[in-house]
Write the structure tokens for this entry.
Amino acid sequence: MKKLFFTCLLFIVSFLSFSQPTYKLGKLKYSGGGDWYANRTAIPNLIQFCNKNLGTNLDLEEGVVEVGSNDIFNYPFVYLTGHGNIKFSDQEVLNLRKYLIAGGFLHIDDNYGLDKFIRPQMKKVFPELSFVELPSSHAIYNQKFKFPLGLPKIHEHDGKRPQGFALIYKGRLVCYYTYECDLGNGWEDAGTYTGDSEETRQKALRMGANVVQFALTQ
């Protein structure tokens, strides 16, 4: 826990001063059979966008970290995505809880089909908490880039509106969950999805940058 605290503190200092050292954003590898590796170009593209537009000094390569690994404490921000099943062991539940309580941040991005699997797993991590929808006035939508209507819609599936949910532990947002949005798809290389406009892609990247900025400075 102390290691993560000092890592996050140093990251914030470097974030504000635009100086060394460099830190990685992590993609969370989980069990259960779901495609944790989805959106292969998403995080590297988001990193480049943040470095260019926020002045961050993030490592250009994402890290891959397992839920139950001690290495997770080296990442101030981890990203979880996929379409299918996900399962946390008891040890992974304990490790993820410790990480988030110690100052870590988890962005869960439903890539369509993840919702029914991730909710019970996060309930195991924080049985005392429930996801709450964030209003459009929340700070996460009002960082460098402004989203007065809240989370943007990137891909359409079931005709539902995009929603941004949060787990808030003792006043701090520890987990942000983007649902019916496909935010990470919008970070991928241009042309990955036929019919996606550059305008939509830029909305996704700007919202992603807001998430990173909020997570590292809240």
